[in-house]
Amino acid sequence: MKPAQIMRSKPLDPPSSISKCLKSLKTVQKVDPLLSRLWDDWEKIVGESLSLHCIPINLKNQRVTIGVSELQWSRALNFHRQSLILSFRKQGFNVRDLQVQQYSSSYSLGDRLNQNLTTWQYHPSRIDLHGISSCPACNSFTSQGEIARWGNCSLCQRNKF
Q1: Choosing a second label site near 14 at 20 to 30 A (CA), which of 6, 72, 118, 139?
Q2: For the segment 1-60, what is each residue's pLDDT rounded down to a tens digit?
Q3: d(CA 147, CA 132)
Q4: Cβ pair 130, 143 in contact under 8 A
Q5: What is the set of domains in the chain, with CATH numbers?
Q6: CA distance linking residue 57 with residue 93, whole number of Å
Q7: What per-residue string of b and e applies to 95-133 under the rule 16 or more CB within 10 Å gives b?
């Protein structure tokens, strides 16, 4: 008598890293290799804070189209336009112009709120980041950042003007 055979499903392939999945997706979707390289180098080019809030959408005719999630990041990109163009060139991209446009990302509202909360927690204006000290002129409580910058609190600094 033969032992009963147990039906088993085919073993699963080992998990792939995200970078391998993205590389295979780039080949399947036929993404422009220059734009793909730009995505890979994005954080090095624009910096960590800007890379969280904007993405490269297109790279054509020496012009990079950058999508931003909110207006203040559009202003930041326009303010740093020349230094960003130099940064693109330093990374090997022949870029002459930046075009910034509103772009709705695929983040959910919960992700955005969580990200905004995290950004607020690490914002330099938060008192607990720098500690509290007293102003040498009026003895009121103020952040150590104001004392380091102006030598007194912002109210005393305003009165000087």
Answers
A1: 6
A2: 555 555 566 666 666 666 676 666 666 556 677 888 888 888 888 888 788 888 888 888
A3: 10
A4: yes
A5: 25-107 (3.30.300), 127-161 (no CATH)
A6: 15
A7: beebebeeeeeeeeeeeeeeeeeeeeeeeeeeeeebeee
56: its two tokens: 């490269």
CB 84 within 8 A of CB 45: yes
What DSSP string describes 64-126?
EEEEESSHHHHHHHHHTHHHHHHHHHHTT----EEEEEE---S--HHHHHHHHHHHHHT-TT-
DSSP-derived secondary structure letter, 8: -
Q: 3-class SS at 147? A: helix
SS3 content of the chain, % helix, strand, coil (to 5): 50, 15, 35
Q: Say which range, 23-32, 59-68, 145-154, has the weakest mean pLDDT.
A: 23-32
Give the CA dihedral 69, 74, 77, 82, nearest 10 degrees.
140
